[in-house]
Here is the input.
Amino acid sequence: MGSQPSVVIVDPVRVSRTRPKYPPPSVPKWFLPDIRPLVFAPEIDDIDSRNIDWHAIERSIEQEPEDGVDASKDVELRIRPSSGIGNSRTDSGAKTNRQTKRHGHRKILSFDNIDKHAFATLPIHSASFDELIQYLKKPIYDELHPETCLVRALTVWLSKQDSTKSKYQHADVRTPTGIIQHLRQQTLSYTEAFTLLCRGAGLPTVIITGHVKAGKYEPGDIIDDGARDTWCAVHVDGSWQLVHPKWVCRGTYGKEKDDWVQIEDDPYLAKKDLQRQKEKEKEKEKYILTFNEEFFMPKPEVFIYKCYADEQKWRLIPEEMNLTSLNDFMKLVYISPPFFKLGLSLANNPSCVQKSTNGVVIIEIIAPKDFIHALNLGYQIYAEQNETKHNDLYKNLLQKDILSRLVLNYRSNDRFVFEIRLPLEGNYQFVIVGGFGTDLSNICRFKLVCTESVGEWFVPFLHPGNNGWGPGPEMERVGLLLPTKPSGKLTVSSRQNSGVVRHSSSVFYHLTTLNFQINKALIRKYEYTVEIMPSTFIDTRTIASHFTPNGELKGDLHFKEKEMEREKRMEHVKSELSEQSQDDDLPVRAQYTKDISSRQFTVQVIGNLIGEECAVIIKATEMEIMNNLRVPKKGVPTKIVCYYLLTNASTFFHREHTEVKLCKSALHDAMNTQNIDKIQSAMNKCLKFKVPVTDDAIAAAEARLEYLILRAEMVECIKRRNIAVVNETLRRVVGYRYREALIVEVEKLWAFRKELQSLEGYPQGLPPMRESIEEMYKLASAKPPVHNTMKALLILLGYEGNLKEWSFIHKQLKVTTDKLSDMGIIRRIEYMTNHSFPWRKMDFKVLQRVYKVVHEYQFEHVKHVSLAAAAIYKWIEKMLKRAKYVLQGGEKQ
Here is the structure.
């Protein structure tokens, strides 16, 4: 299970240490994953699903004032027409690049150059420690964790060495070449060789012994001496850090071979390793580093899930987090390194062995809210092979397809919920896989123990796979946003919102309503339909009648035949796509409407659900224009974008208390309003009565609150008239999951931002010239900046006289006798505005005089005194700029 112990000839512990006394072990001061992020969530929306260019907005608001941003050259919002039908494209990697640029001012520890340099080490550099260390230190800068970088270089150098078994040759462990020769002769293990290398470089290093969960380990296995292993702790930059040399350099997630050891049986990561190996063999000179980052200086509280040190002090974790015994380590949940790379955590840190309650096991995983909507968590479930006590009839329930459908995986707020319905008594293995898109890997594993059989089961017609039940990435890609039911499992009552007493199966009740806001850019690109698929009910008395001799459910065959008939009927599209096409014999029906004006898609589910369960399937059909008609796009099949599971309140769960029902009813009423305080108060009351955060009502309330609060902040920042506040609000909108739902508000806010930029930080815009002159005429006296501006204006307009006196300037602003509403100065202003330079007898000397006079005061000073004078100041500068253009040889315009 761990790396095998070597035939020890040299004990590295007894080799003379580099320092007389090692520092005591303690919790590390810093952690490598904090300095260098390990994962970024990719963009999940394609370009044609955007109403505006969000990347352009982000680039604009991220620029600092000192960058010299010209407001006139700011980003223009290009609104997509709502009636257009675009083509699907992707924009992968853009977010990573933007985040890298955003954090460019911060020093981030990067090993790229160090790795390449160490990988290129030649045999002549390994003759002695002095030569090797001198070579490896070349790209290392002293100011940024130099000892950490040196350990990294030594590890890369060790990983590229050929360690295949060789015949015995004399080798000196005081040289790097001698250490590698001992490694080939298997007289040194990787842990021992790494220890000697670090000590040879002057770095305190110790060997840690303990137990590991690796290789063929399965949750619930007993950990004994067969799981013994060793790893290292190296003291760098004032702190002890953990390194597992064997797993870093020769750890594999596939089959063991040669000197490679299996860390975990992960087919996803094994496939990636195989692909890298093929690339390495194809291009021998290409730099491809095979390196397991997860075990090079990991966080000790993450490392403890895989490796358990015998001595408590060398676990390097806080005392309150420490395990008390090896038995606690055995019970600890089996978590794979990608779990932590994705920022996941367990809601209640369960044991690796989970026991069912009434045949059901629930596992909750908390994910970062920033990208939970982009993350996919799937699963694999299978019964252990030694389960032989079930006869052939019951074994049909243990086949892989049936077991997979008995698992409900759905998002709820910041959590992934796995509700596992175990059909029969026995032991099961449950593996959770996850990642972005199709880039998956094992996340964690559990052993499930079922001690009772409920005797009756609902088997859904299908299971959604890694996307899970409920709204997810696929739904957003086709333009359905802000679902009122953000959780995939809906527990409803057949008599909800109805006082009718059920006397016959012909009575239908309102079960639930699903409402979505449609992306403005995709409102004409897709048409949506809804189907209802009842689950198959099986109990101990009727189990034989539901399975074919081949182990297939007869209900599956029945629905497959009806699906084929429906596809034949839909070859020629009808004019009214929104009409319901449900079978009359189904106990539950769905009615759906699409409102173009309000951009709403509404689904109403009605029927009798007493003792029943069914799936609500939302499909999207991509449309195109042919002969001025919108028809389904050829060659693009209709795809399922969202699954909801409707289950009766009394099917699997106990009845809710009256207080809880009243609280949830009040929350439902508050959700129909836009009152933030009312919704928040109703949600807090539900939480007070112990309504779980994964409940659909709480999930919907939190999503609604986030939307309303952000929209209210957009309105509030317009009232504050502060461009910094506007930028911060826009930054939040750019990172908002349902930003396309705020497109109208964003358009207004962006236009307002452009207005604030033109005002250069002032709360009001500049008035027109006529209003400015009228304002000047009302002044009995003027402050120096205003007086000076009007003096420059009269010189430019050709007035002569004592311009030093305000009384003379005021006299020129008086109303003419022939037209009471006209001023003589306005006529001259209009003439100069409408005609090109030169104006009448205007010459270069006059322009020079005007330029000198008007710039005696800065524009900001004039604007601070009078907005009317500032408008005149701007007009003078515009005329001077026009005249300068003509004098320099430009065309008259």
About this structure: Residues 696-720 form the longest helix (25 residues). Residues 532 and 616 are 5 Å apart (CA to CA).
